[in-house]
Write a structure and sequence with these properties.
With 550 residues, this protein is of the alpha/beta class. 26% of the residues lie in helices and 19% in strands. Strand 1 and strand 2 form a beta hairpin.
Amino acid sequence: MNRIPPRLPAPRVSSRLRPHAWLIAFALLCGLVRADGVDRAAGAPLDLRLRHQIPVEPGQTERYHRVERAERWEPAATAIIVCDMWDSHHGYRAALRTGELAPRINDFLIQARASGVTIIHAPSGCMEPYAAHPARLRAMAVPGVTEYPADIAKWCYQIPAEERAKYPIDQTDGGEDDTVEEHAAWAKKLEADGRNPKAPWLRQIDLIEIDGERDFISDSGTEIWNILRQRKIDHVILTGVHTNMCVLGRPFGLRRLAQAGQQVVLARDLTDTMYNPASAPYVNHFSGTDLIIDHIERHVCPTISSDQLLGGSPFRFADDRRSHVAIVVNEPEYETATTLTPFATDPLRKDFRVSLIHGAADQPDSMPGIELLAEADALLLSVRRRTPPPEQLQVVRDFVAAGKPVIGIRTASHAFHLRNRPAPAGAADWPTLDADLFGGSYQNHHGNDLQTTVEFVPATSSHPILRGIEPKSFVAGGSLYQVSPVDPTAEVLMVGRVAGHPEEPVAWTFVRADGGRSFYTSLGAKGDFEQPAFRQLLRNALLWGVDSGE
């Protein structure tokens, strides 16, 4: 995180309305600006996929399903509010990310505006420079309505749906993620430019164009509510910064609009978060944004992504180099739903973007949201004897066929087939999964009353998966699986022993027929997750899986 030297040119703060040529050229070079987009005639409906999260079981607040629903919105009944995309910021890196994000937002607005969507620019506290701007005058001229939602002119810190939820990040330090040197150099530059280092914004960043003939400019909750009601707006999309602060809390933000009964969604890839990885939960900056988006999808409103209008892929910051790991959890015996959920944040979100996919409580063979696996770079599998709908299992098969890495723990060796019987009618199974994915041959396990001692194979001590793990024997948290023989091409890293029986492989790597990397360990009982070495083993295995150079 120290690779940006303070002397690099900072984002310019010109008051001109045209975008800076150098930043547009940079954005084009990095693929941040799209010259194409989805062909859409003016007035044609917007076909969107709204994502939200629902509890796996009623009343619990730890595990959720990500689900999508398709909706068709009329452009004339839709508005986009651009929140606080200022021309500068007190955080150096926040300012850089705003400059990187702005061209994509501008492209998003161009597509939406051409379709007939209402665009509202809301750079809070910056109305004075726009006093004579046609878009500002247009907003002020909109007639008031007879009734307003409660507190529509006030900041909103929480809505009732959030009261039982644990807020996912600590932002009490303001969320700046600059180094000390960067921040000092940036504050000095702001002062030299005649700006207040604590609040240097003067207007909206000029990389986002304002159409003087059609757009609106306002930072007032009542004015924006007037616009929405007088133009008969049914749907609102919020974009801009910062998700955990202004986008959620402003009078025109997600909370206030949702509380007022307005259908509102967040463009989840067209935003950023004020989060410092030195604060809890001590994850990557972009993982902090993911955690806030999870919170929003669970307790505030659904989200969409900009590619739904622009085509291609969702926007991604250049510094977001995380691989995406999907954790599929669907087994009750070893309680990995409860052990893998905290593991997904610590330590995984320091290195990875993480998605958790759970089995349904009322239909345990079904895994809502498994389609998300298609977007992932790696799979961590903890499933036991499930026979899902054929289309869901096909998602897993397609992921494997693409040669992507698979990490399996404990019951993953018999994830998708029943013992000694076929799948029920209308369901799918994969009886050869153990051999196909892991080069294993699971038959059974030794008794739970037999203590399992795990030892490292000395010849593999330098393997990347064992990095940082002290190679000394330990007692496993569960029974020893009978998995011999494993494929002769597999590399065994750890073995287990119980009294009176031959040793068994406990952890090994395997290169599949499709060329993809797999790692499997029969560890994964609840007691194993209490061992730091085991958590390190899984983290290392995922890093090894996505790094083809090792």
